[in-house]
Amino acid sequence: MRVLVFAAVLAALSAGAAVAAGSLEVVPEAPVGTTEVKIAKMKFATPEVRIKTGSTVTWTNTEALPHNVHFKPGGSVDKEVEGPMLRANQTFSVQFNTPGTYDYICTPHPFMKGKVVVE
């Protein structure tokens, strides 16, 4: 009986993790071959990137002023993803699991805009 309950709990946890990933998934470390976007001079240095489904984009803040990456729901974005405020040389990585166009901004500087196109 305990084995069955344990197996059911594991199955539920695994299913929940798969659903939680959604179209965007924050990843703790950038995998090899990630697409990089530098944040410099109050803008995303590459305002539009094109990647394959399942690829990762990593943003690196190269200035002293903190910035973040914020995806709001709508279009291809199925759930809000707001990255932490990045200080100089800190990074934030997101894996894109579904084709589409993903627009983002820097929350405190909404004039800073970018786009990830996933094919």
Q: If you compute it from the alpha carbons, what radius of gyration comes out, rounded to the nearest whole angstrom? A: 17 Å
Number of helices: 1
Considering DSSP H and I runs of 4 or more, what fraction of the residues is helical? 10-25%
Largest sheet: 5 strands, mixed
Give the strand order of the largest sheet, numbering strands 1, 2, ... along the chain: 1-8-5-2-3
How far apart, in Å, are the first and last alpha carbons?
Answer: 46 Å
CATH class designation: Mainly Beta
What gross morphology would you assign? globular
- The number of E-state strands comes to 10
Any idea how many domains? 1
CATH level 3 topology:
Immunoglobulin-like
Model description:
The structure is a single chain. The chain is 17% helix and 41% strand. It has 1 helix and 10 strands. It is globular, with a radius of gyration of 17 Å. Mean pLDDT is 85; it is low at 1-20. The strands form 3 sheets. A 5-stranded mixed beta sheet has the order 1-8-5-2-3, with no helix packed on it. Strands 4-10-9 form a 3-stranded mixed beta sheet, with no helix packed on it. Strand 2 and strand 3 (43-44) form a beta hairpin.
